Structures are given as C-alpha cells and as structure tokens.
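lol so apparently i was supposed to do this last week
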Amino acid sequence: MTLRPIITLPDEKTLREVSKPVTAVDPSVRNLWDDMLETMYRAPGIGLAAIQIGVPRRLVVLDLTKDGEEKKPMFLANPEIVWSSETQSDYEEGCLSIPDYYEMVTRPSEVKVRYLDRQGNATELQASGLMATCLQHEIDHLNGVLFIDHISRLKRERVLKKFTKAQKLGKL
Ligand code: NI
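anyway here it is w/ nickel (II) ion bound
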C-alpha cells in the first residue's frame, strides 16, 4: 500500500473530471483501493474517490467507523444510485479535497446504491444517515461534482477564491 497525494482545490481541472467505469475488479483495482484506503485513513477521512488521488476511475473507499472501533472498510466499484428518498436531510459536510471547510448540505436522506464489491460481485446497499450522505458525496466525485456545488453560489465562489489565493501565496 502506498500513500498518494490528495488533489485539492484549486485544481478543478482534475476534480471536475468525469471518471470512467472499471471493466473488472482485478488486482490493479484492488491495489488502487488499498492505496486509497491508506491515504484516506492517514488524512484522516471517512470517504475517498479515486479522482481525489488523480485517477479517473469509478472507485470509492469508505469507512465510517469511529476512532478506536474496529475498522470496517468498504470498497465500491462503479457505484450508482438506483433509488433515493423524497425525504431530505442536512449534514455538515467536508471533503479531503477542500481542507478545513465545512458546510451544511441537503441531500436525500436514504439511497439505494448498486456497485461491484471487492470480489467483483454486483451488490446493492440501502443506506440512511451519514452513510447515505457519504455515498452521495463520493458518487458525486465520480461525476466531477463537489459538495460546494450544493451550497449557495456566493459561498462557493468565496471558498474557490480562498484556495486560489492560498495557492498564489504558496500556501498549498
Ligand atoms: Ni469529498
């Protein structure tokens, strides 16, 4: 397993890329998942999409367990939302690609997601709460969408400007 650098704003060119499906869950996919997981744990974070380490494949890792609990990593290939609830809920979201920025985001409170698991088996998962939010956030990444796209334009422009400025000042 190798730690990979995480792509952050203002690198929208990479983060806005639409990732391509994997054709099969093979050893190269599992190696990439392992690198993503190590990178995510180290950050630390609870979810990571491959594009966040610069790889435009539809791959996600998640682990919502808390500090001190036994780790329960999840590996998803080609995940897609096949159903989402009418009911919505608000969660304060953050993103490893937008460090130190948190904002409330409204999304469907429940989703059903279809994906290939680590063994390459087609799987369906119905999720609510933090898991539902996290799945939607990560699947957004695969489509080049960031959580700041779900907040007001004013707030989004402010955060983009902050990262562009930080880069110019050599602080990123
Ligand atoms: Ni994110």
